[in-house]
Structures are given as C-alpha cells and as structure tokens.
Amino acid sequence: MYTKILVALENGEADERLLPHVGQLARQVGAELLLLHVADGWAARNFEQLKLTESAEMKADSAYLHGRAAELRAMGLRVETLLALGNPPTEIVKIAAETACDLIALASHGHKLIGDLVYGSTIDKVRHNTTVPLLIVNSKIKSTAS
Questions:
Q1: How far apart (Å, rounded) are the C-alpha atoms in residues 30 and 72?
Q2: I need a labelling partner for 72 at 20 to 30 A (CA). Which of 29, 36, 62, 129 fits?
Q3: pLDDT band at 32 (very low <50, low <70, confident <90, very high)
Q4: What structural domains does the chain harbor?
Q5: Rounded to an integer, what distance in angstroms lies between the CA atom of residue 131 and that of residue 126?
Q6: How far apart are CA 36 and CA 106, in angstroms?
Q7: Which contacts (CB < 8 Å, 24+ apart) does range 108-113 have?
Q8: pTM as predicted
Q9: How many other CB atoms are found less than 10 A from the CB of residue 13?
C-alpha cells in the first residue's frame, strides 16, 4: 500500500515518538523512508535570495538527519534524507508531491486553539494543501511500537 513515506522531522523530542511508529510501518509494508527536515531559521529562509553560506543550524540539522538515517538503516530499512529550507508546511507538501511519496508522517504536539494560534499548526496547513494521506503521531504519548 505504501512504497515511500515522507517523515517530517523536527530535530527534537517529538521525533522520538514518531520514528518508532514509522519504522515499524515501513518494515511491515516494505516502504522506503524519506527523512525530511525543513530548516526555517533566518539564514535558511533567505539562503537563496541572499546567497548565504550554510549556517551552523543547517549543518546541525543535516548531521541530525544523517544520524537518524544511519539508525534506521541499521534496522534494515531503506532511507533517504533531505534538508529543505523555508516554510515547513509549504516544503513538506511540495516535496511529498515532487518525490511521489504516498504517505506523510508527522508528530503532533497536542496544542489546542490558543497554542495553534501562537505556535502555528504545521499539520493543519499540510492537511489542507495535500492529497497525500497523513499519519499523525501524538508526541505526548509514549510509543509502544518496536
């Protein structure tokens, strides 16, 4: 059913809840994983326009992606990585379409109305702008996947 799963990583604690679920699913269906992190700091958002050099944040994000990919490959999974720059929801939707992903996996933070207004909701923006199915894992609930 799923052949390529885009996994939107934050380089944070939520990834610890998301990755076990996605890893188990990929193993069960034989899917390839595309680990995506969207760097959205000032340097990342202005990288192309201002011809900037890679920031320390972008280098750390890239190293993080490669480290997580190595962990998943050690479990026998097929994994690619991609560090994108800009607005996370926009990039997630765009890259899912460009790479023919058939599932997008994200972690939710359980924000309610006020939290969504303050922090924004990547999930909400992604779900309204894609036709690709979403797997949403609550980052507040401990994973039972193994």
A1: 13
A2: 129
A3: very high
A4: 4-138 (3.40.50.620)
A5: 9
A6: 10
A7: 108/136, 108/137, 108/138, 108/139, 109/14, 109/139, 109/140, 110/138, 110/139, 110/140
A8: 0.83
A9: 11
Q: Minimum mean pLDDT among 88-92, 122-126, 137-141: which range?
A: 137-141
Query: Whose CA is closest to 84, among 3, 5, 7?
Result: 7
SS3 track for the chain: CCCEEEEEECCCCHHHHHHHHHHHHHHHHCCEEEEEEEECCHHHHCHHHHCCCCCHHHHHHHHHHHHHHHHHHHCCCCEEEEEEECCHHHHHHHHHHHCCCCEEEEEECCCCHHHHHHHCCHHHHHHCCCCCCEEEEECCCCCCCC
Sign of CA dihedral 49, 125, 38, 100: negative
Write down the residue that tokens 């199915």 correspond to.
Answer: 133
Locate 67 and state its tokens.
């480290």
Give the tokens for residue 22.
Answer: 């996605």
- For 101, the token pair is 């992903």
pLDDT in the model for residue 115 = 47
Read off the pLDDT of each residue in 7-27 and give the average, rounded to a whole number.
94
